[in-house]
# Entry
Amino acid sequence: MGRDGAWNEGGTGAAPTFFAAPAVPRTAPHGTAEAPLPLIIDSDPGLDDALAIGLALARPELNVLAVTTVGGNADVRHCTENALRLVHAYGRSDIPVAEGAAGPIFGDVVRATEVHGEGGIGRTVLPASPASARPEGAVGLMARLLAESPVPVAIAPVGPLTNIALLLRLHPELAGKIAHLAIMGGSIGEGNTTVSAEFNIYADPESAEIVFRSGIPITMLGLDVTHQALLDLGSAERLRALGTASGRIAAELVEFAIERVRQWYGGDSTATHDAVAIAHLAFPDLVSVASYNVRVDTGSGPARGRTVCEGLPIRMQRYGLAPNAQVGIRIDGVRFEQILLDAFSRLP
Ligand code: RIB
Ligand code: CA
# Structure
């Protein structure tokens, strides 16, 4: 303890408790404007999902093949309608949208409507899209796109991992067509939904464990890195000053998120979690990553949904653990906001 019982006051406290594995070269693919990375976004729009989708559609390095939805922040019917209206607002109602799982494979349904609003995107009302969700559904659409693609396709799951687990169980032969999973979820350290678990993992731990065991190359963009990608009311003003309709939408979403954060604990910024997963695929040098073995606690105790991240070589050797994911550890938050502002200046 530091003076007056405060931990680390004056920097005289204990060293961090979790092992900070060293940064390593990324394994995630990244696209270029000449050869954009084919990408499916699986999401639960969702305030930060909305920014992530806009960023993906604005970047020439990414070729968004579809946006699929899963119940998470809000009921899946809201997430699907939000996804349709968002891609329409961003000028891309041609992007296929398909609805996936309403809830987890096992366990209670968990929502984050207290953060995102009952409908999932705060008080923002978007014009209806002329398009409808594809009747083949999220897993069917993902499977068809993977099968049809001449090259492996990256997937950015930025909601609970139920659809991805179902895809792997229903179409195991397609696992080799998944180039990489850039997952927003988990945390080396504490969670945000419980002290142990981050929301996307907590909402469906069993599906997350299926995905982390799959052997598919994974980058886990967890809270450790997404909490460095903070936007504040100044960010919202800068988004609105872009003068684009999409910039105004993004500003509204950020302001709503901050309103909720302020109500809860007087915070003045919001972590743009999901957009970090997209930015990692578009910008090869933005996010630093380290190698970990990640397992998910699927028990029923206080650690349910925790991503147990082991990076210490001697313990990995002792317990027979091999790395199965790269985990985001560092991002330049100022550059990240500039990337978002540039993206939303490119959208209508
Ligand atoms: O914990 C953050 C994650 O949970 C983000 O994906 C956010 O959209 C919510 O789904
Ligand atoms: Ca999300």
Observations:
- Residues 1-5 have pLDDT under 50 and may be disordered.
- DSSP finds 13 helices and twelve strands in the chain.
- The pocket of alpha-D-ribofuranose (ligand 1) is lined by residues 44, 46, 48-49, 72-73, 112, 158-159, 184, 192, 198-200, 273-274 (CB under 6 Å).
- Residues 182 and 267 are 28 Å apart (CA to CA).
